[in-house]
User: Fold these one by one.
Assistant:
Number 1:
Amino acid sequence: MANMCTNILYCRTEHESDLKKVEDFLEKHFEVFQQTYIDSLEAEFESCWDYPEVKMNRLMATLEHKGELYMRVLSYCLEDEYACLRVFKNGKWEIK
């Protein structure tokens, strides 16, 4: 069995259509717990081994207003001593 990585996501945007795309994508591709607010979304979901980079890149490709979107994802797997914080702002990802 693969070690499971926990991902805690926060997303904020003024564009309701992009927020809805994030929400729908997470529901389609992960077993997710999420809470949606007027201009933001908080979610927790699991992936195998580490941060689901390929899937998240597919999500980002569908968004229309990337330059105005803020997202952060804290991914960790304590069993593997893995932790990573990724922040998306100004249209690009940074790994902290």
Number 2:
Amino acid sequence: MLIAVSTSASRMFYVGLSAEPGRDAVAAAFAVHAPAARLRWAGIDEDCDGVIFLDVQCNASEFPYVLGATNLAGGDDYEIGLAIARDLSVVLRCRTVCDGTRHGPGSSPGWCVVWDQGRAFLGDDYGSVFYDDSPELSDSERAALGPVRILHPLEI
């Protein structure tokens, strides 16, 4: 889903979206929250300083588009991901999902934040099609997966 980079300085984050993200909307959100970054779509090349590489992949869940970001520009990936997910949920009038591990009640990588047109909710994506779907699953395993579970509203 995300671009792999062979450098220890790379960091990655994602935003799942229920509506297709246009490049202009994505660029506008990054201009606000990572203004010094240069955005590049797709492959990584030799000129990586200050770049955030982006790609969009399909997902078979209620969030059929996943914006993957490999951040070589600096900043807090968690906070940038939250802000980009929030802004895109408003601009695109859709639901988005991003990492929520800092907002869960305990230490679990399954916590996510679901944004619904700018309103935040704590979610759990374990056992969801969004997080757990894989080509290696059997039909019965895939059928057991559901949507991201919404737990309660968050004040962010």
Number 3:
Amino acid sequence: MKKISLVILAVFIGLSAFAQTPTTLRADAIRLASRGYFNKSLDCLRQIAVDSLNAEDMHLYYNNFAQLGQNDSLAYWADEMLKSNPYDAQLIVDYTPRLNNGWQGDMGRKTFPMKVIDICKKYVERDSTHILINRQLAEAYYNIGNYDLALQEFKKLEAVGDTCFGTLYTLGLTYQRMGDNSTAYDYLYRAYDKNDHHPYCLFMLGIVSNRVGLGAEALSYLDEAKKLLMPDRQTLFRLHKELADAFKLKSEPDFRLEELQECMRYAEEKDVNELTFLMGQCYFQLKQRDKAKDCFNRFLEATENKEYNDKIKGMRSDAQRTLRMMMW
């Protein structure tokens, strides 16, 4: 019996060892990532010795961290891969836009255009015809303020037929930065023709239209940009409501009242009664009793026989109690 137990234990250990080989860990990591279990995929990869990792493993590390939004870890693995293969186009096409756009760090948003330039220039030594990589090189030159080199790279892209919105838009920005508003207008208009709902393109097109004397046209672009950049009523309502709640937590009824008044500007009919009650509370805290009474009385009148839920019942009870207190 003891011998059988030892045999079973040995088989179990053998199976466990087999289950943990790099091959099975790698297969598990791929399967888990394909199903959206990115952290579990990473757990499998971490059990593979670093000196046993191949290019596919590193790409999986990179992709998992990309999916999780962990940009510093993503950058670590991208840099490791580029050390061994600086011509990995698939990686560069995904990595360099992230570096150009940047991400939030401890000290604010960081961008890495110089890193993009180093990566892309190295790749271009072997292949100077990759449009997606050349775009990022041009963007990086624009981002560091080297408009001469940015213009040179963007014109190369245009010459080989790359006239997508992004290329035309940044060409327009580049000419505008260089003081050539007329040419900037031409490119920004062509970009606008491809995407007439891009707020910053409309904004910049409005600016250069003004510079070249097209005042009426500028007004139409700027007005449209304003509409697109302005949050909708519901968003503004929620923003000011959250600010009001924050000021309540800070015990600052004067600022809370200001935010509630802003809420009232964007409120739907269903929100008005609650806002009236909350404003009454602020006026009471600020010892403006006449205004507090007015708010509470309007709230009670509007909600009479409309105690639809415990929240309304509770507010009505609070309003009546506060009104009684103010009569003493």
